[in-house]
Amino acid sequence: MSDDDGVDASDDRTYYVVSDLHVGGDEQLGEVEFLDELLAFLEDLEHTDENAELVVNGDAFGLWEFTTVEGIEKFDVLVEAYPELFEQLRATGETVPITMLPGNHDHELAAFDAYVERFAAYNVDLVQDVSIERRVGDHVVHFEHGHQQDPNNRIEDWGNQHATPLGYYYNTLVTSRAGQLSDRGRYNWLKDVQAVTPTERMPVWLFSKYFYREMNPLLRYALLPFLLLFNVSVVLVVLVGLDLAGVWSTPVTWTTATLGQFGTAGTAVWFLLATNVAATGIVLLVGVPLYFLRRDVRQTIDRFGVFETDLTVDHEAPYQRAARETFADGEDVRVFCHGHTHRPSVQSVDGGVVVNSGTWLKRLHRRDGVVGILPPVFYPSYQLCAVRIEAEDGDLVVEHESVKKPSPSPEELTLTERLLTLGRKPDPELPEPVVVERDGSVRPRADDRTE
């Protein structure tokens, strides 16, 4: 049923929104760590007493990450790999409408009409448009995945099966290849490449995982003292230089005399420091001129504009701009709901809110070392959630509801990584619920509980 503006008229319906599940992909990418939680979420919806609708707001599946099958064949691979998921979709869809929008990773859903029929058999209404709108009370909610606001993933010719934005090549050449190679490592970690954002962090993440996961343990533990004491060693290098130059010898003399009082233990510490000082001196001797050379090369490249494409897209500004345009075009539109950037958030803009539904994929939180020059640790966590949107006394309530989330497996972090992040374990919180009032003003939902 639609009103005169072509907006679905479902005033009393509660909407649940999820996005960026990224189910499927080559080999190791096919592992869905949150499958049990997703099945439980769908089962709860199946038995809800609410007049509800589930909107899957793009990137439900990782079709870009399938490189050995083409077109509609990918659907058959998905059904074969995840029979429980599709049967639960069928069961949930019998009592709660399920609407699915394509994202960039599963843009092919918009390119083949056969997908509509295949999903309909599992009670999923696949809408092959960029966006949909739903009326909730006196307001209208705009849903789109969000990749059309990202120049690296924007599909210029929507519905064209041959559409290949920059993100397509990254995922078929890098992400899919990672899924094929992941189980060859000492640990099956390379498949987590999908969780690395922004893309520029990839080299640092690879080096971090090499150091903590793939490096020969004997070599790693041999390097640890040097890396941990690097800052101290730099100071000692300077002091030794002053001593050799005859400028100031007191610190070196005092250190040697002090350590000598502790016998064998003091000698061992002195030997360790001496080794670190020698190694650090060599590193500084080579590294300082290389640093200036690298900086000069980068400045030259910037002058010529060789690399003008910024892979990292602002995860806020493009969506705020799109929301303002959408609000201006639709008088009653007050919520712009998207995914794509994997960051759950609620932000107030002129006349409404921008809501990001987040991701069910693992998220990686960078933790730099507090001492020395050890590689950063990328600590894993999950923020499984569904956005809940409903009308309440003429206003609109927007809330991120937490879904029971899996905990990172103990083997995901080495003992060294756990020690280095002791007391710094991330515990990301979901955004606080908000109320969008009839005039478009936004206030925290907490206000209702304090009156």
Automatic annotation (TrEMBL):
<feature type="compositionally biased region" description="Basic and acidic residues">
    <location>
        <begin position="435"/>
        <end position="451"/>
    </location>
</feature>
<keyword id="KW-1133">Transmembrane helix</keyword>
<keyword id="KW-0812">Transmembrane</keyword>
<feature type="region of interest" description="Disordered">
    <location>
        <begin position="422"/>
        <end position="451"/>
    </location>
</feature>
<dbReference type="InterPro" id="IPR029052">
    <property type="entry name" value="Metallo-depent_PP-like"/>
</dbReference>
<protein>
    <submittedName>
        <fullName>Putative phosphoesterase</fullName>
    </submittedName>
</protein>
<dbReference type="GO" id="GO:0016020">
    <property type="term" value="C:membrane"/>
</dbReference>
<keyword id="KW-0997">Cell inner membrane</keyword>
<keyword id="KW-0479">Metal-binding</keyword>
<keyword id="KW-1003">Cell membrane</keyword>
<feature type="transmembrane region" description="Helical">
    <location>
        <begin position="268"/>
        <end position="293"/>
    </location>
</feature>
<feature type="transmembrane region" description="Helical">
    <location>
        <begin position="218"/>
        <end position="248"/>
    </location>
</feature>
<keyword id="KW-0464">Manganese</keyword>
<dbReference type="GO" id="GO:0009245">
    <property type="term" value="P:lipid A biosynthetic process"/>
</dbReference>
<dbReference type="Pfam" id="PF00149">
    <property type="entry name" value="Metallophos"/>
</dbReference>
<dbReference type="InterPro" id="IPR043461">
    <property type="entry name" value="LpxH-like"/>
</dbReference>
<keyword id="KW-0472">Membrane</keyword>
<dbReference type="InterPro" id="IPR004843">
    <property type="entry name" value="Calcineurin-like_PHP"/>
</dbReference>
<dbReference type="GO" id="GO:0008758">
    <property type="term" value="F:UDP-2,3-diacylglucosamine hydrolase activity"/>
</dbReference>
<dbReference type="GO" id="GO:0046872">
    <property type="term" value="F:metal ion binding"/>
</dbReference>
<feature type="domain" description="Calcineurin-like phosphoesterase">
    <location>
        <begin position="16"/>
        <end position="192"/>
    </location>
</feature>
